[in-house]
């Protein structure tokens, strides 16, 4: 079984050592590199091409959001396929929405429990998004306070301009477009639950969860779980 290759980009030595020590308790994880700033981090990612980069949002030379934007720009040329897990102490709206816009794959607060961090790593590695519930609440609050302005700026950073009209139409989504069970699954996606956890919570099989997730993505015209979650929060489908 191949290990999950992780790189850490964090300027605080004690924090970085703590995360590395915690991650290495799991045999499935390999920490392949570390960097203390964005410049070193970008070079490291290009060289090592890890599966996941855990990136601190508050780096000294360039913030993690800008670094994420650069990494995703490179990824579009298929030179780099690293997934980005943003780790942050910032829970203000501006930082959260900027992280969404930069195209990070998952979003965690730094006070996350270790078990939840491992879950976030596994979910991200499997190609899905892990969204910290605290961050989901911030996005929902922002959407409710300023519904007219939060559209393509952070909802669809991974799609091209041809989808902008479809983005605007997401405001018109109504709960009846999803079944009651799909709404339950969507709520758990927003809370950062993996398919396995959703299956356990709803007493259904993982296969059934995958079917519901696929239907949700189709109905919300979303490319991935992050996009579906943000659109659902944006439109008030879940809270």
Automatic annotation (TrEMBL):
It comes from the Bacteria. Gene3D superfamilies: 3.40.50.2300. Residues 5-125 form the Response regulatory domain. The modification 4-aspartylphosphate is found at residue 56. Residues 171-236 form the HTH luxR-type domain. GO terms for biological process: phosphorelay signal transduction system; regulation of DNA-templated transcription. InterPro entries: CheY-like_superfamily (IPR011006), NreC/VraR/RcsB-like_REC (IPR058245), Sig_transdc_resp-reg_C-effctor (IPR016032), Sig_transdc_resp-reg_receiver (IPR001789), Tscrpt_reg_LuxR_C (IPR000792), WalR-like (IPR039420). One of its GO terms (molecular function) is DNA binding. Pfam families: GerE (PF00196), Response_reg (PF00072). Keywords: DNA-binding, Phosphoprotein. PANTHER family: TWO-COMPONENT RESPONSE REGULATOR. This is Response regulator transcription factor. It comes from Mojavia pulchra JT2-VF2.
């Amino acid at each position: 079984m191949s290990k999950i290759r992780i790189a850490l980009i964090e300027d605080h030595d004690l924090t970085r050592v703590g995360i590395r020590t915690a991650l290495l308790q799991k045999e499935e994880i390999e920490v392949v590199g570390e960097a203390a700033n964005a410049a070193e981090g970008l070079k490291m990612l290009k060289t090592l091409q890890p599966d996941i980069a855990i990136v601190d949002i508050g780096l000294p030379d360039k913030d993690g959001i800008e670094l994420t934007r650069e990494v995703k720009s490179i990824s579009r040329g298929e030179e780099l396929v690293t997934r980005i897990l943003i780790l942050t102490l910032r829970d203000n709206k501006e930082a959260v929405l900027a992280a969404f816009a930069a195209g990070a794959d998952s979003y965690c607060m730094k006070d996350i429990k270790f078990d939840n961090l491992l879950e976030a790593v596994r979910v991200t590695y499997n190609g899905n998004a892990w969204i910290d519930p605290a961050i989901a609440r911030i996005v929902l609050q922002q959407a409710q306070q300023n519904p007219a302005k939060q559209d393509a700026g952070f909802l669809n950073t991974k799609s091209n301009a041809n989808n902008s009209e479809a983005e605007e139409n997401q405001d018109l989504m109504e709960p009846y477009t999803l079944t009651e069970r799909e709404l339950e699954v969507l709520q758990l996606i927003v809370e950062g639950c993996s398919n396995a956890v959703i299956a356990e919570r709803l007493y259904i099989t993982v296969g059934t969860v995958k079917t519901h997730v696929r239907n949700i993505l189709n109905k919300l015209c979303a490319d991935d779980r992050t996009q579906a979650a943000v659109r659902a929060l944006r439109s008030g489908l879940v809270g």
